[in-house]
Design brief:
The protein has 236 residues and is of the alpha/beta class. The protein has 2 domains: 5-142 and 203-235, Vaccinia Virus protein VP39 (Rossmann fold, 3-Layer(aba) Sandwich); 150-201, Single Sheet (S-adenosyl-L-methionine-dependent methyltransferases). Helices cover 29% and strands 39% of the residues. Strands 3-2-1-4-5-11-10 form a 7-stranded mixed sheet, with helices on both faces. α4 links the parallel β2 (62-67) and β3 (85-87). α1 (5-18) crosses α4 (70-79), α2 (21-35) packs across α3 and α5 (115-127) crosses α6.
Length: 236
């Protein structure tokens, strides 16, 4: 999805302007410590450019990240000196160690294609939990909560650059088709346009629940006014 440094930089600037990463990390840390008060280690799966991970680093003694995209991982490494950042696929990764908390934020799990892939990813994350660890998954929207035809807009000024993003989301079977266009105006190079089409799977609540069960976890779903909520899992 973010195939080069320029695309990752656009992502970084836009979303830090529109999301409260610190508040989201505080919310997730509270969910973890409600279930494991002494939690001190955390793995952030699909950590992107590391903004959530930097916020988690203020709340946990030891943190690490996992990211598939080379350009996103490079941005995270610039942001988080000394923090272990692993390249890997959420469906198959094996780091050979466990954590008190494993989290996956920003609906990244929605980029999986099938329920079988969802099961594999949740099981991989479960294998990286300490015996009394906590898994927190921020899902994508469900088939009955997705808004077909949704339009999103955002623009931000960043030094000598202006960046605008518009998106249009439609349903294609069990997928969201999100068409995104970016305009980047630069004082030196002028205006450039780039676009992408992302596909995110509309997994059902039952499919998430089954994935946690197969991963050996009890699960609770918590609704949120600000997004699709959280699934929180603990060992059976």
């Amino acid at each position: 999805m973010y195939e080069n440094d320029s695309a990752a930089e656009i992502y970084d600037v836009l979303y830090q302007d529109r999301k409260d990463y610190d508040a989201e990390a505080a919310r997730v840390a509270a969910l973890v410590r409600e279930r494991k008060p002494d939690a001190s280690t955390l793995l952030d799966v699909a950590c992107g450019t590391g903004v959530h991970l930097a916020a988690f680093a203020k709340r946990f003694d030891t943190v690490a990240g996992l990211e598939l995209s080379e350009s996103m991982a490079a941005r995270a490494a610039e942001r988080l000196s000394g923090v272990p950042l692993h390249r890997g696929d959420m469906r198959t990764f094996d780091l050979g160690q466990t954590y008190d908390a494993v989290v996956i934020m920003f609906s990244s799990i929605g980029y999986l294609d099938t329920a079988a892939e969802l099961n594999s990813a949740v099981s991989a994350m479960s294998r990286h939990l300490a015996d009394d660890g906590v898994l927190v998954v921020e899902p994508w929207y469900f088939p009955d909560s997705f808004l077909d035809g949704h339009v999103s807009t955002h623009a931000v000024k960043n030094g000598d650059q202006g960046i605008a993003r518009v998106s249009h989301s439609t349903r294609e079977g069990d997928k969201t088709r999100m068409e995104i266009h970016y305009l980047v105006a630069d004082s030196t190079t002028g205006i450039k346009h780039r676009s992408e089409v992302d596909h995110l799977t509309l997994f059902s609540r039952e499919e998430y629940t089954e994935a946690f069960r197969l991963g050996g976890l009890n699960v609770t779903y918590l609704e949120s006014q600000a997004g699709p909520g959280f699934f929180v899992g603990t060992r059976k």
